[in-house]
């Protein structure tokens, strides 16, 4: 399949990662942090969340990121921002993509109000991964990119899976399952340094 430069731009803009192929730019300001006066939910400690393991294997890293992205428990005493911090710990170390990544993650987590509502039912979530692959569209993007526009070791993995939720409704356990698909953009430096996370596609709008 032949992809023109204009088509490539449309592909990447569509998944919110156009910054990955536009070359160096001024780093975005870091995401805002809560003020000291922000309400704190008792009983939860973000340090209890397991970190994403370091690895130089891109598929292994993509699987770990996908698992962490969908794993949460409203009864833990934690809030969505706490789960976001786990993913930001393995973000682009230059900080260039961090603000964009934080915005991407927001699209995967419940809002604060929704979280409060889901907590009434002790809702938990996890991801069952069914397929992991490098999308053909990414190969086209790499082919069209100019030298230096993509860091060595940068790649994309599309994840397909089933989002499982469980909770309690009228004192009875209840579950739901929903198919999801998305693309993870990451870099695994060729010098065997650990992989790091760049951006995420919009949920259910993956590269194919």
Summary of the model, kept short:
28% of the residues lie in helices and 24% in strands. It has 208 residues and is of the alpha+beta class.
What class, by secondary structure content?
Answer: alpha+beta
Radius of gyration: 18 Å
Strand elements, count: 5
Mean pLDDT, all residues: 83
Q: What is the count of DSSP helices, taking H or I runs of 4+ residues? A: 6
- Secondary-structure element order, as H and E? HHEHHHEHEEE
Helix content: 25-40%
Low-pLDDT stretches: 1-11, 22-42
- Strand content bin: 15-25%
Major sheet size, sense and barrel closure: 5 strands, antiparallel
End-to-end separation in angstroms reads 12 Å
Q: How would you describe the shape?
A: globular
How many domain modules? Answer: 1
Q: Describe the strand arrangement of the main beta sheet, using strand numbers.
A: 1-2-3-4-5
Describe the structure.
- Residues 25-57 are annotated as: Disordered.
- Mean pLDDT is 83; it is low at 1-11 and 22-42.
- The chain has 208 residues and is an alpha+beta fold.
- Strands 1-2-3-4-5 form a 5-stranded antiparallel sheet.
- The protein has 6 helices and 5 strands, in the order ααβαααβαβββ.
- The protein is globular.
Keywords:
single chain, five-stranded antiparallel β-sheet, 208 residues
Task: List the SSEs and their pairings.
Blueprint: H1 5-14, H2 58-70, E1 72-73, H3 80-88, H4 98-106, H5 112-119, E2 124-133, H6 136-144, E3 154-169, E4 172-187, E5 196-200
Antiparallel strand pairs: 1-2, 2-3, 3-4, 4-5
Helix pairs in contact: 1-6, 3-4
